[in-house]
What we know:
about 75% helix; mainly alpha
Amino acid sequence: MIILGVLLLIIGFIAAIPIIWTIGIIVLAIGAILALLGMTGHAVRGRRHYF
């Protein structure tokens, strides 16, 4: 999800499409939160890792 968020940010910036930029920020933030929870050992919805 982090990689997808970064790709959306880049595409949104290059194409100057604000909605893709916003979706990229949201996806990147969700990916970072899930990665942090996975690293600390907290299972999120039954999964320990999201990669």
